[in-house]
Amino acid sequence: MSVSVRSARPVPVAVVAAVVGAGLLLVAAATGWALPATATARNWDVVWAGLDVGTAAAALATAALLRAGDVRAALTATAGAALLVTDAWFDVTTAAGTSAAGLAVAEAVLLELPLALGGVLLATRLLRTHR
């Protein structure tokens, strides 16, 4: 698959993805350098609840698609895995240096990351059997 980027020659999607990835790494580096180490955030509770609702929606969608025998369950399983890794990352990094750090690491290691791995393995299995 290729896309045109205002030229007569089509640009492969992989090239576009690589350029976007490299650009996002530069943004991440600049953000890490420029942002303060601490900040107060409004709607903190809404942010966390929204992440959890998104993760639950991915799991429920995966279950529904699996029940229907739909290979697109690989997509929702992968999305759920990404959300679980994101949740673990934010839990551990925002709890660092606090009394909640131990619980955050335990949840990440015992719950969120194994579930994310399960989602990736499920997606891989679905895609391999669908060929």
Keyphrases for this structure?
about 130 residues, mainly alpha, transmembrane, transmembrane helix, about 5% strand, 2 strands, single chain, 2 domains, about 75% helix
Task: Offer a quick outline of the entry.
The chain is mainly α and 131 residues long.
Tell me what the structure shows.
The protein contains 4 helices and 2 strands; from the N terminus they run E-E-H-H-H-H. By secondary structure, it is mainly α. The chain has 2 domains: about 1-35; about 40-130. It has a two-stranded antiparallel sheet. It starts with a strand and ends with a helix. The relative contact order is 0.09. The mean pLDDT is about 90. It comes from Pseudonocardia spirodelae. This is LPXTG cell wall anchor domain-containing protein. Keywords: Membrane, Transmembrane, Transmembrane helix.
Q: How many β-strands, per DSSP?
A: 2
In what range is the share of β-strand residues?
under 5%
Spans with pLDDT under 50 lasting ≥5 residues? none
Gyration radius, rounded: 19 Å
User: What is the overall silhouette?
Assistant: globular
> Which sheet architecture does the biggest sheet show?
2 strands, antiparallel
Transmembrane segments: 12-34, 46-66, 73-90, 102-123
Organism: Pseudonocardia spirodelae
Keywords: Membrane, Transmembrane, Transmembrane helix
Protein name: LPXTG cell wall anchor domain-containing protein
Write the layout of secondary structure elements.
Elements (H helix, E strand, L loop, with lengths): L1 E3 L5 E3 H22 L9 H24 L5 H23 L5 H30 L1
Antiparallel strand pairs: 1-2
Helix pairs in contact: 2-3, 3-4
Organism: Pseudonocardia spirodelae
Protein name: LPXTG cell wall anchor domain-containing protein
Keywords: Membrane, Transmembrane, Transmembrane helix
